[in-house]
Specification:
single chain; Immunoglobulin-like; mainly beta; 7-stranded mixed beta sheet; 54% strand; 4% helix; 6-stranded mixed beta sheet; 2 domains
Amino acid sequence: MHKYFSFIPLVFFTIGFIQAQDFEVSPAYMNFEIDPGDSQTRVLTIKNHSSFQTPFTISFADFVIDSRGNKEMMKRNSSKNSCSEWITPEKTFFDINPGEQIEIKITMQAPEDDFNTRWAVMYIQTAQVQSAFSVDNGVGAGIHLGGRIAVLVYRNALTGKKTDMSIKYLKEKSETDSLGRVFTAIVENSGNTIQKCKITFIASDLNSGEEIEFEPQMIESYPGFTREVKFVLPKTMPPGEYSLAVLLDPGANSVIKGTRLNETLVITEKEGNE
């Protein structure tokens, strides 16, 4: 028999466009599905909500993923997982009239013999060309860049995909949390695709055999990176001795992996009554 405990996860909502200041960009993510040697073109839409003509630029950067899933931005073509040099916009500098929108073709050309999932960041940014008056007054020559929007760009091959996921090292942390005891596990992605994974923690009562399955967590795992998964055991747990396990479900047509805490989880009467 299963009991279910729930907690309120931190949820991020994704919409069909991103808006910043007086312009918006669509789509928020751009996914190219191309095999080695092939190319593909997507369309980027930019709308100017301001009351004046605005110049824009398009530029690129890279990012890596830390153990908590945060994206750390880097300069263009500085990551081994980058596809920023494969991307060619139809134009990188253009004007948009007030209240109007334009469509820019973005083309990706994949090199031969590369089946790996790759990613980059495309920045759409307002720009202002400095006048001779500004230069004379010490503002500086060239282009002054303003607000920007980041669009994540991904490359996924149609063939040659390899899923190789594992979850390891389930242990209790010494850190404290007002909601309960803290446990972590490590997800490793040794494949070549980004996987959307479901992580489920289960506590099994060693006396009754009853299982308590907690609300699953959804994470995104990038190839070549590890991801720490954090779980807080609620203080409302009934007292007893438990076996704590965690399951990793990488999605359709993949094998569910799991690991177990290497010691008995003991919940005392005091903990259960807090």
